[in-house]
Amino acid sequence: MVIDVPFIFTAFMEIIKALPLTLMITIVPLIIGFGIGLFVAAIRMNKVRYIYRIADFYVSFLRGTPILLHIMIIYLGIPMVYDQLANYYGWGLKSNSIPVVIFIIIAFSLNAGAYMSETIRSGILAVNKGQAEAAYSIGMTQLQTIKRIVFPQAIVAIIPNLCNIFIGFLHASSIAFIISIKELNGAANIIASNNLKFLEAYIAAAIIYWILTIISEQISALLEKQFLVYERGV
Question: Contact 161/119 with Cβ under 8 angstroms?
Answer without folding.
Answer: yes
